[in-house]
């Protein structure tokens, strides 16, 4: 078993402010939240990326329930739900950020620059390359 920070939290070896825990996932407050109430949902089993998670359904049921709970529990207008895979992944253990959001809360757009395709043909070529990799 890996000994990353989240595995240590799951094992009870490192403190965390727990929100919920069951046989599939553990949810706790981020120690450096974007906004107060920012929750991390991590699978109980150690996997590094989404591609490594064999059964995504039960995990994302927990993510969905937590997003709903953040909205209802904190009485916020919505949530920002995000995940990094390897690049910008601060801990090498799959985790989903659920950040409470309200209009005019100061968080603007995405955290990365945007671009455009040069043509419809270029966009279609990207779609085709990605689509071929699905099988």
Descriptive account of the structure:
By secondary structure, this protein is an alpha+beta fold. The chain contains three helices and five strands. The chain has one domain (5-107): HIT family, subunit A, CATH 3.30.428.10. Strand 1 (18-21) and strand 2 (25-29) form a beta hairpin. The radius of gyration is 17 Å and the shape is globular. One of its GO terms (molecular function) is catalytic activity. Residues 5-108 form the HIT domain. The active site is at 95 (tele-amp-histidine intermediate).
Notable traits:
HIT family, subunit A; 135 residues; alpha+beta; HIT-like_sf; catalytic activity; 5-stranded antiparallel sheet; 28% helix; 3 helices
